[in-house]
Amino acid sequence: MTLLDDYLAEVRDHVDRTLDGLVPRSDVEPARLHEAIRWSLFPGGKRIRPVILYATGEVFGAARENLANTAAAIEMIHTFSLIHDDLPAMDNDDLRRGRAACHKQFGEATAILAGDVLQTLAFKAVADDLSLSAEMRVLLITLLADTSGTPLGMVAGQQLDLQAEGRTVTLSEIEIIHARKTGALISAAATSGAMIGGATIAQMDSIATYANMLGLLFQITDDILDVTQETETLGKTAGKDAAANKATYPGLLGLDGSRDAALKVYGEACDALAEIDENTGLLEAIAGRVLSRVQ
């Protein structure tokens, strides 16, 4: 186990305990709905967004108790998006996080409702966080709304991804799609941590660049893994992107070109961190871990 592995395990445990206290128990009525929520939320997953939030916040001296609810909120928004993405009307995937997708286990209607609840509970988690000032909570709620539901946010990115299926797209178009679909919520995680930690405007700018590059890196490596890994390793159906004729980096650049692009983006993320006069080694290690998935 490396220091990064230890940190990842610590944060996952902290976030899972926070989430457990924020979502209804599975025996609370309507029990089937709450069971579906917990089925989707607690297989584990990488918890990469909360990890980024914690690591960024701690760079600037934020205490974990001030980061917990916002990190949990971002994980709830992420999980809601996965539940809805897997639906037959969208990506139509049967597997998520190594087991049956929510709609396969509980039916489409319950899956839709489970996603709806997680989205609203996310904003409640931040609104109810008395460890933060009212002003900070308003700023965080606005950030989460911007990065999930506005024309530059996650949902818009999913729509652009759907519209790109079955046609040739440019590299610029792919970057726009994934900056919104994947990058926006990763950016929200890093920005939230920096805000809670009291980062300066200049530091916030550098963190934003790092987060944007990290989001792009995460998507490039995800696209590569969809081509090169087996379903059992991925925890979701391999080869789905190609089968659906989705806009992907390997589809446009090939595998070698995609790996080169990942390395370039990783370098740009590290360059942004070098502008911050704080110990950002953990953030660099997180980017390195994402890159290592395909190198």
Short précis:
Helix content is 74%, strand content 1%.
Keyphrases for this structure?
295 residues, mainly alpha, two-stranded antiparallel sheet, 14 helices, 2 strands, 1% strand
Give a structural overview.
The protein has helices at 3-22, 31-41, 48-59, 64-85, 102-106, 108-127, 134-149, 154-164, 171-197, 201-228, 231-234, 240-243, 249-274, 281-292; strands at 95-96, 99-100. With 295 residues, the protein is mainly alpha-helical. The two termini are 20 Å apart.
Q: Main beta sheet, described? A: 2 strands, antiparallel
**Class from helix and strand fractions:** mainly alpha
Ranges where pLDDT stays below 50 over 5 or more residues in a row are: none
Strand order of the largest sheet: 1-2
What's the number of extended β-strand segments?
2
Task: Give the arrangement of secondary structure elements.
Blueprint: H1 3-22, H2 31-41, H3 48-59, H4 64-85, E1 95-96, E2 99-100, H5 102-106, H6 108-127, H7 134-149, H8 154-164, H9 171-197, H10 201-228, H11 231-234, H12 240-243, H13 249-274, H14 281-292
Antiparallel strand pairs: 1-2
